[in-house]
Design brief:
There is one protein chain. By secondary structure, the chain is of the alpha/beta class. The protein folds into 2 domains: about 120 residues, ATPase, nucleotide binding domain (Nucleotidyltransferase, domain 5); about 140 residues, Nucleotidyltransferase, domain 5 (2-Layer Sandwich). Helix content is about 40%, strand content about 20%. It is built from 11 helices and 10 strands. The chain has a 5-stranded mixed beta sheet, with helices on both faces. Strands 8-7-6-9-10 form a 5-stranded mixed beta sheet, with helices on both faces. A hairpin with a 5-residue loop joins strand 2 and strand 3.
Length: about 300
């Protein structure tokens, strides 16, 4: 009887699903919608994975009924909470076995190839984890509203805020701040409109029709702020003074995690995530051989953990 492993890298921006055979050879891979467990009680994540599962089996030319012989591992954004992972694992999956991890766990398994050490995710969100002498340590990953200090989403939000202040004449303008305002609609009124939810539930408005309920103004998702990062990097590389000051703040957040890793004996910090990869040359200059690029991507880490958890 064939045996398959399915890995999921569920990010705040998109969800990747990979099907592998018993030797961990990739048979097919697909991409689907956003999959943060903290968004809408995990319903978009469930849909992204179930749709992705059908797509990946079709792409591999494997009968969907073989999900009964498939063992799955999900590494999920928003999976920091034990209760969120347990509830998601309890959903009606078609697989022979399912294990749900925080996305940092699959990043660690992939980046270090099973070795001990530390890993940081610096993408739409951010988090850190290490295994030292068999002990697991974790920090960050508490989400956009109260954590994720190293993330592209947080930096994007602060960049948007600063750019609005610059347009008001409160702080120094630069080509970057003007480009941000242009990207958000051209002026501060447009930027304010952009910052609100794209669809507003009118039932949340007060009875006289005024915007009397803060719940109506949900605001843009973290990934929307993260989309400002290419613009930020472009202007940083051109020497924009605001970009350079904001980069100093960003690097300061990362320095905090470097100290945390060193304090409990980690000997390496692998950098995972699109924004982190862009920052790697700067981090290498700053921290030398303590920082490293990942050996494998998080999605392969999910496949590795699927086999480890459900060995024949």
């Amino acid at each position: 009887m064939p045996r398959y492993y399915l890995g999921v890298d569920g990010g705040g921006t998109n969800c990747r699903v990979r099907l592998a055979d018993e030797n961990l050879v990739t048979l097919a891979e697909v991409r689907n919608g956003r999959s943060n467990l903290q968004i809408d009680d995990g319903d978009p994540a469930y849909k992204a994975i179930t749709d992705g599962t059908r797509d990946v089996f079709a792409a591999a030319g494997v009968d969907y009924a073989e999900t009964a012989n498939t063992y799955a591992c999900f590494g999920m954004a928003g999976g920091r909470m034990d209760s969120a992972r347990a509830e998601f694992a309890a959903r009606p999956w078609p697989f022979a076995g399912v294990k749900v991890y925080d996305d940092i766990d699959i990043a660690h398994a992939g980046a270090l190839g099973g070795d001990e050490g530390g890993v940081v995710i610096i993408g739409t969100g951010s988090a850190a984890m290490s295994i030292v002498n068999g002990k697991r340590y974790q920090a960050g990953g508490w989400g956009f509203h109260i954590g994720d200090q190293m993330s592209g989403a947080i930096l994007g939000r602060e960049l948007a805020r600063y750019s609005v202040e610059a347009a008001d004449g409160l702080v120094e303008e630069s080509p970057l701040t003007r480009a941000v305002i242009a990207a958000l609609g051209g002026d501060n009124q447009a930027a304010m409109t952009w910052s609100f939810a794209t669809e507003m539930d009118l039932t949340l408005l007060s009875r006289d029709g005024s915007e009397g309920c803060d719940d109506a103004l949900i605001g843009r998702a973290p990934a929307e702020y993260g989309k400002l990062m290419p613009l930020f990097i472009e202007h940083f590389e051109q020497g924009d003074p605001v970009a350079r000051r904001m980069m100093d703040i960003q690097l300061g957040y990362i320095d905090t995690y470097v100290r945390w890793f060193r304090n409990h004996g980690a000997n390496v910090m692998a950098i995972v995530g699109g924004f982190g990869q862009r920052l790697f040359p700067i981090l290498q200059e700053r921290h030398g051989d303590f920082v490293a690029l990942p050996k494998f991507e998080p999605l392969h880490g999910a496949i590795i953990l699927a086999r480890q958890n459900f060995s024949a």
